[in-house]
Write a structure and sequence with these properties.
By secondary structure, the protein is α+β, with helices and mostly antiparallel strands. It is about 30% helix and about 20% strand. The strands form 2 sheets. Strands 6-8-5-9-7-10 form a 6-stranded mixed beta sheet, with helices on both faces. A 4-stranded mixed beta sheet has the order 1-4-2-3.
């Protein structure tokens, strides 16, 4: 996930009544204790869990015939998001990036925990944060079952739990020579928006308005991930840039790839930018949270039908090869030179 260091502030809004878990009788101006904060904004009746928020541990009942998929992601202010990002968008994104990991494994969301560090407990801000997070959770049937709160620099760390049938998980080590490489949706808009915010380039306001939601409120491709069971061999979500993320599949599967950079799907806004900018965004830009997956040639018709059913473009962009390494080519098959790296928290400033 790319850094937002030195990014300008974004406007915030707050509407405590929008939080589906908030207590309408609570005085929004009253000081919040740690446990009142949890009770007011993050405690809801357990629906799937045996025991949810309020005890030393949550209790989840194993689902027969399934494996439990577990993933964690941390978002740190000034590193992963703008310090003044609207809290509703932040709540959405914090859960979305975790749900995206479940999607990449073909898992069905079940529950999540939230560890939250706050410089201060602002009731209106918390109401918006919880609203954005819990609205997305409800949309995917994923309930909050526990976590922790403390005072400190603004940080959100979530752990998600999902169910995947035994033998059906989409793993990084399962790509095979001859597989097609596919991408869902479009790539690069989040990086394009981030570059505008950092002053790397300047987009016309209408264009920035179109691409910014891809950075602030990404869509986890959960339905696609579950539908790819039995069709795809390997998959992952694109969080740090396609070149680096696809490289994880190649390394784990001990294969190579031929990637057509001109076939990579991009929005009309990104397609109107200079070619160098386009390549930077689609190849090395992070925060897309689209799925990159490999599948046998024989699944092309089934994938076309799936794309139509989900109303989600699926684009074939390359081929898995037995020869190690990633080779980039253009539409004519000519080699493409590209030196930028995907994002790395310790290699990037």
């Amino acid at each position: 996930m790319p850094s937002t260091d030195a990014a300008p502030a974004a406007p915030a809004s707050a509407d405590p009544s929008a939080n589906p878990s908030a207590d309408p009788s609570a005085d929004p101006s009253a000081p919040l204790s740690e446990f009142e904060l949890i009770r007011r904004y993050f405690t809801r009746p357990a629906r799937k869990a045996v025991l949810g928020v309020g005890d030393d541990c949550a209790l989840l009942d194993p689902r027969p015939g399934h494996l439990l998929a577990v993933s964690s992601d941390m978002l740190v202010s000034g590193r992963h998001f703008f310090p003044d990002v609207p809290p509703r968008a932040l709540g959405h994104k914090a859960l979305a990036v975790n749900l995206s990991d479940l999607a990449a494994m073909g898992a069905e969301p079940r529950a999540f925990t939230l560890a939250l560090a706050l410089p201060e407990a602002d009731p209106a801000w918390l109401a918006e944060l919880a609203a954005g997070m819990l609205e997305l959770a409800d949309a995917h049937g994923c309930e909050l079952v526990g976590g922790d709160t403390t005072r400190g620099p603004l940080t959100l760390s979530l752990t998600v739990f999902g169910d995947v049938p035994r033998g059906s998980a989409l793993r990084r080590d399962a790509a095979r020579p001859g597989d097609d490489i596919w991408i869902s949706g479009t790539l690069g808009d989040a990086r394009l928006a981030l570059g505008d915010c950092r002053g790397e380039w300047l987009l016309p306001e209408p264009d920035f308005t179109l691409v910014r939601p891809r950075m602030d409120t990404p869509t986890p491709r959960v339905a696609l991930g579950m539908a790819l069971r039995g069709l795809a061999h390997a998959a992952l979500d694109i969080s740090d840039g396609l070149v680096g993320d696809l490289g994880h599949i190649l390394e784990r599967s001990q294969v190579g790839a031929l990637l057509d950079v001109d076939a990579l799907p991009r929005s009309e806004v990104l397609a109107s930018q200079p070619r160098d900018c386009q390549l930077e965004c689609v190849l090395a830009g992070g925060d897309d949270y689209e799925l990159c997956f490999t599948a046998p040639v024989g699944t092309r018709e089934a994938l076309a039908a799936l794309a139509e059913r989900l109303a989600l473009p699926l684009t074939r962009v390359g081929t898995i090869t037995a020869e190690p390494g990633l080779r980039l080519v253009d539409a004519g098959g000519g080699p493409v030179s590209f030196r930028a790296r995907s994002f790395d928290h310790f290699a990037n400033p």
